[in-house]
Specification:
Chain lengths: ~325, ~100, ~375
């Protein structure tokens, strides 16, 4: 059995509301709230970045864990806001986590699905016997161009999963990936904000790829939507994941608890994984979970997982961390980026 | 003065061991007029902390609410960016203190 | 006995027309004139300066001075942060004792206004530890932490700090060379913006240019000839940890206490004998700590004493502190301060202090500190 043995997450304290951003631009907050389904988003402080957040989430994953750090054979960090264009976040993380030098490290980027792709590689890595454990972090301090729609959703968070075969709390059943060349959202080297193709990011991008991966997964595993207790889809806003769920034959009840986007915004590489953390908080042994990430450019990774009895000891409470929050003004928000 | 990547690298080895350590604030101040390596951060609080092992050190306060900059507040050492670096230099990570 | 026979301090302030070495030249030739000596009678020079390298890439001051004066004598550049001047004087004193030289010139100078404020602030931070710099602690930040600790421990308020600046600004009015000649009130100080709380702009000494020079000698014939001569009874240096986090106590500068004890013992007098003291008020809190650490006031009582303004000129007291205006009002060209302080005591003891002259002072003390207390120099002069 392989899967996730331990996990951790981090959300910064600061929040900026849709209302505050709308007020700054002289827009009607009601309208935006309805179309995006995001009330507020989390944003890292001026002294935080993808690395510091990944570190916090990794510390949570490793504390109270019976994993010997020196047995982590690989570290993969997925982000679209790596601190450096050239210099691996993974080794800075590895160094501060004090895991020694005997490990493979690399960073991945694939918009919002940078981490889930790395998770598939980590699972294969462990299954092939290359490492006992692989640490994978999805982390982003995402920004949007001032005045752009993404400003309401681009948020900050990090999630770390430790992949292994001992005392697995979330068993890996199967996965599929659906990839194509689709220019819905991109960022050129040296440019500070990403660009996107407006409404093209919907049907031909998000929905097409999630449907591709999920339908393949259902076919491959011969499972049906009703076989899953809960599902998580990547959350660019609070509306798309619910639409996708319904169109694929799932119910709103199955996707409801994963929708952290409403309070946290879209944390890009950590988005779907954050939804998973919310779901794990209330999952019970034996339940099946489906997770489908989406990365612009574009692709989707879909996973079928089963919760094991180990969740009972290793469960971490996201809701508790989210109690620690402070709303800030638009000006302060801009200083933090 | 340019930040030396080698000095940062050497420092990292010491800093690693301080992460996660707990202590309390002995005294502190809020810097309103910073030097060039912290120019875009002002105002920011800096504290002198005594760790549980009696070792003392200084660092910025982070993730705090307004009442936290007081003598006796319990804190924990966390990893944060500690200096403003230029677009080309190595990023300086270090220890900051978060109120518990 | 080593004797001061001449002195010159330039105007302190924003001296746009003058470079560092213009100021050095002014003070050196001024001191030579004041003492009636020719430059060839100087056997060695000690030059106190902190930021020449950090700000202007100008080190090797010894050779620069040699060029300026056309001399080949030993010239030493000395650095101990803000105590560079005091330490240069101490080394000059010890040079006379330990070598064949009888006559030494000591000069301190600083040029700070050629650079943007944040570059100067960073430059001054070179006197702090690496860890303190990394945390973004500026000089004001370090003294602010000491101030907060002191005010909390002894239950004082920011008002108790303000008296220092008010007094020193009043003295500045009486000193034509002072950077500021402007009266201020306690309300002014309390209303000024924070630099690092609880220290505000008017709690902090300014960024200034300036230079000061003294000539010391043991040559009996020069001393006899000298128009105005004052004996140096003691010059002592002590150090302490550069980091605040390594200090034993945060409500004192141990280096000051040790240097003062050594100096009083050497001079065979006590704090009660001092009529004029120039203490290192880089920030208002520093004067409070200095008055206690030097032994003038009991630990923790400085706040109360300052309220009475008993050390202000014109209040009928026979013990005045910082008659020059201190660092706060006279200005603080870092390398020059230590020398200027000794010069002020010299002026007082030779009845040359004009409007700020104290009545027949017998003994005077100068106190110069480097960084947040990593170095302290105490000099006692007397007749």
């Amino acid at each position: 059995m392989i899967g996730i043995c331990d996990y951790g997450f981090y959300v910064p304290r600061y929040r900026i509301s849709t209302e505050e951003i709308a007020r700054h631009w002289g827009k009607n907050p009601e309208q935006i709230l309805n179309s995006l389904g995001i009330v507020e988003k989390a944003i890292g402080g001026a002294d935080e970045d993808s690395l510091t957040m990944a570190y916090e989430s990794a510390v949570m994953a490793l504390c109270d864990s019976d994993i010997d750090r020196k047995q982590i054979g690989a570290v993969f960090v997925g982000s679209e806001t790596h601190p450096y264009a050239v210099n691996p976040t993974a080794t800075i993380l590895g160094e501060y986590l004090d895991i020694g030098n005997d490990y493979l490290a690399y960073d991945t980027q694939f918009a919002c699905k940078a981490a889930t792709g790395a998770i598939i590689s980590a699972l294969a890595h462990v299954k092939a016997g290359f490492s006992q454990y692989v640490l994978v972090s999805g982390t982003d301090k995402a920004t949007g161009q001032p005045g752009d729609a993404l400003e309401y959703s681009a948020g900050s968070a990090a999630v770390t999963c430790i992949i292994g075969s001992k005392n697995v709390l979330l068993e890996y059943i199967d996965s599929t990936s659906f990839s194509s060349d689709t220019p819905d959202f991109w960022r050129r080297s040296g440019i500070s904000h990403p660009s996107h193709a407006g409404r093209f990011t919907g049907e031909p991008a998000y929905f097409h790829h999630i449907f591709g991966a999920v339908n393949s997964l259902l076919k491959k595993t011969r499972l049906k939507p009703k076989d899953f207790t809960r599902i998580i889809f990547h959350m660019p806003n609070g509306v798309f994941p619910v639409k996708a769920a319904l169109r694929l034959g799932f119910t709103e009840a199955q996707v409801k608890e994963s929708l952290v986007v409403k309070q946290l915004g879209n944390s890009y590489s950590a988005s779907a994984l954050m939804g998973l953390c919310a779901v794990l908080e209330i999952s019970q042994p034996g339940e099946r979970i489906l997770l489908a990430s989406y990365g612009s450019g574009a692709g989707s990774d879909a996973f079928a997982f089963k919760v094991t009895k180990h969740i009972l000891q290793k469960r971490k409470l996201l809701s508790k961390l989210l109690e620690r929050k402070e709303n800030i003004s638009y000006d302060t928000y801009r200083k933090f980026l | 003065m340019k930040i030396s990547p080698i000095k940062i690298w050497r420092r990292q080895k010491e800093l690693k061991h301080l992460l996660g350590k707990k202590g309390k604030i002995i005294t502190g101040t809020t810097i309103y007029v910073p030097g060039s390596h912290h120019s875009d951060k002002a105002p920011f609080p800096v504290v002198l902390v005594e760790l549980e092992n009696k070792h003392r050190l200084v660092g910025q306060l982070t993730d705090y609410r307004s009442g936290d900059l007081t003598t006796g507040t319990k804190v924990i050492a966390v990893l944060r960016k500690t200096r403003s670096s230029s677009k080309k230099s190595v990023i300086v990570y270090g220890i900051s203190f978060r109120p518990l | 006995m080593t004797t001061i026979i001449g002195h010159h301090t330039t105007k302190f302030g924003e001296l746009w027309q003058h470079s560092l070495f213009d100021l050095v030249k002014q003070s050196v030739f001024g001191a030579l004139k004041d003492s009636g000596l020719g430059k060839d009678e100087v056997e060695a020079i000690f030059f106190g300066n902190m930021l020449g390298g950090v700000l202007e890439n100008n080190l090797h001051g010894g050779a620069k001075l040699a060029e300026m004066l056309g001399l080949n004598i030993p010239i030493f550049r000395v650095e101990s942060a803000c105590a560079s001047g005091g330490v240069a004087f101490n080394l000059g004193m010890n040079y006379i004792t330990s070598s064949q030289a009888k006559t030494v010139l000591v000069v301190g100078a600083e040029k700070m206004t050629d650079y943007a404020a944040d570059a100067v602030i960073s430059g001054l931070s070179s006197a702090t530890s690496g860890e303190e710099q990394e945390a973004g602690l500026t000089f004001p930040g370090l003294y602010a932490m000491l101030a907060r600790y002191y005010l909390e421990k002894y239950s004082y308020t920011e008002k108790h700090l303000a008296y220092v600046s008010v007094k020193n600004h009043y003295h500045g009015l009486l000193n034509d060379n002072a950077h500021f000649q402007k009266k201020i009130t306690v309300a002014d100080v309390l209303a000024s913006p924070y630099v690092a709380d609880p220290l505000k702009v008017l709690d902090s000494s300014p960024i200034s240019d300036g230079a000061s020079a003294l000539i010391i000698t043991t040559d009996k014939s020069l001393i006899k000839k000298a128009k105005r001569a004052v004996s140096v009874l003691a010059s002592e240096v002590a150090t302490d940890s550069i980091s605040l986090s390594a200090r034993k106590n945060l409500d004192e500068l141990l280096a000051t206490r040790i240097a003062a004890e050594k100096a009083f013992r050497e001079a065979k007098i006590t704090p009660k004998d001092i009529s004029i003291a120039e203490v290192h008020d880089c920030f208002s809190i520093a004067e409070l700590l200095a008055m206690e650490d030097l032994g003038f006031w009991k630990k923790g009582t400085a706040g109360k004493h300052m309220e009475t303004m008993s050390t202000m000129h014109g209040n009928g007291s026979d013990f005045i502190v910082n008659s020059s205006g201190g660092l706060k009002a006279a200005g603080h060209p870092v390398g020059a301060t230590g020398i200027k302080q000794i010069g002020e005591v010299y002026l007082q003891l030779t009845e040359q202090a004009g409007k700020r002259q104290i009545h027949k002072p017998r003994y005077g003390l100068a106190h110069n500190v480097g960084g947040s207390g990593g170095t302290a120099v105490v000099t006692i002069l007397g007749n």
